[in-house]
Amino acid sequence: MSTTDTDDGTVLLNERTGRYWQLNNTGAHVLRRLLGGQEPAGIAADLADRYGIAPEQAERDVAAVIERLRGSELVIS
Predict the structure, then answer these.
(1) What InterPro entries does this protein map onto (predicted)?
(2) Phi, psi dihedral angles at 22 (to 5 degrees)
């Protein structure tokens, strides 16, 4: 996987398939934290604090990003 940051988030290239994916700033934040070894619960807590949203909503949002990344085979764990 190759990544490039943009003004609106991050563009990802799945080097195995040649497909591109774009993440908005929040999705890019989640990806960077995952790649840095942070657990999803910690990422969700950070998002809840940062954006003033309910922790449950942040947990659902992080889970949704992870599922999309898994579905596109950009992350496997």
Answers:
(1) PQQD (IPR008792), PqqD_sf (IPR041881)
(2) -120, 130
- Encode pLDDT of 63-72 as tens digits: 999 998 888 8
What are 17-31's pLDDT values in tens digits?
888 989 999 999 999
Domain enclosing residue 34, as ranges: 25-77
Say if CB 10 and CB 31 are below 8 A apart: yes
Asked if residue 4 belongs to a domain, the reply is: no
Q: Which tokens belong to 53?
A: 């949203």
Report which of 61, 77, 76 is spatially closest to residue 24, judged by C-alpha positions.
61
| Surface-to-core class of residue 11, CB atoms within 10 Å of its CB (0-12 exposed, 13-18 middle, 19+ buried) | middle
- CA 67 – CA 65 distance, rounded (Å): 5
With a cut of 70, say whether residue 2 has pLDDT above it: yes
